[in-house]
Amino acid sequence: MDTIELEPKHIPVAGSADVVVAGGGPAGVCAAIAAAEAGADTLLIEEAGCLGGVWTSGALAWILDAEDKPSGTLLARIVRTLRRRGELEFAGDGTPAFNIEAMKALLDEFCMEAGVKIRCYTRVTSARRSADGAIACLVTESKSGCEAWRGRVFIDCTGDGDLGAAAGNPFELGDPQEHRTQPMSLLALLTGLDAAQMRPYLIRRGNWDEAADRFAALLCEGDYRPSYRGVALFHLGNGLFMLMANHQYGYSGISAADLTAASIAARREIGRQVRILKTRGPAWENVRLVATGARIGVREGRRLAGRYCVTLDDVMNGRRHPDGICRVRFAIDVHALYPDGGCKLEDAPPKAEFYEIPLRALIAGEVPNLLMAGRCISGDFFAHASYRVTGNAAVTGEAAGVLAALAARNRVFPGNVDYKEVIQEMKK
């Protein structure tokens, strides 16, 4: 590989905080709000121009696995507030579906009210560790140049484990055999459809396969078949629909080149699908593509090694923990790694009704002041396919934020905080 040499340079320290959160998606915003509300000076760094991650930039306007979360959680507060404002309704399967612009504004509002310092358009690029192995500061790049940010406790909510990897914490990536990750999907928003006429094609609880098969038949044309066999159309309310109908196979979420190629391919396929739908009779002739996600949906990145690894056995047996902080009900949702399938759980016993994520899975194994929340927590490939969705990301983010605030307040590493204090604080 051709290389150049960059001369050493002095990087300005742009700011500091008790708790520094990298990534402003569902996990990151909840981590930052929780830390600030627990009394910590908190900084939230996000590479996009808005908070919310896949909820907003990714156009995933459903909160998956929001059920069975305590009413006092930040997630429940978000759902209640959006619903009270008329910006959220419960879809056919009870899943909260929301107005994306309202979600952006609400997350800004909640963070500002809590006193979170927000820096958008800023990407974490590296980290510096002190002699005791703790992160002393992280380094970012933005329009403002290269900057450093000091903190006592850092939380990786990047989804892909970017901060943990930069700090040297071990991680796993992909399936156990080939280290191949689940395919990406770009989401799209459609209008011009009547909800009553769309009912046979809409995803609701218990009908996914039936509705997907019916919808996929509409999208087939000549030798073209949708790249995602489980094509899905969701009603978000007020005449707005969300389309998930593509799989981008063989791309890595930690490669900018792959993300670019996958996004271009996905936009091309979505355009073709909408053109096909327009030919499918009066119910479809006015369908209009109004937006695709500003970023492609990445299902899987790095899984950072923690003090506990959530496993397939935990999921199947419904394992609970004294330090359990998030109850997960979502299925083991492995999207096929190849167009012809592969790496599904064949002939597996039924999954338990629920299992718990312990606080230990949020504490980095080899970087003492690093926590993680969202889909980059410590778990194996199959467990990750269950806990990775946004309802669980939000709750793990809240737990990480509370733990970080307590650690910063007591000037100890997170692993030295009694888990009972975290659970008690979350109940407040």
TrEMBL record:
Q: Where are the transmembrane segments?
A: none
- Keywords for the protein's UniProt record, in alphabetical order: 4Fe-4S, Iron, Iron-sulfur, Metal-binding, Oxidoreductase
Gene Ontology MF term list: 4 iron, 4 sulfur cluster binding; metal ion binding; oxidoreductase activity
Q: Which residues form a coiled coil?
A: none
Which InterPro entries does the record cross-reference, listed alphabetically?
FAD/NAD-bd_sf, HdrA-like
PANTHER family linked to this entry: COB--COM HETERODISULFIDE REDUCTASE IRON-SULFUR SUBUNIT A, FERREDOXIN:COB-COM HETERODISULFIDE REDUCTASE SUBUNIT A
Q: What is the name of this protein?
A: FAD dependent oxidoreductase
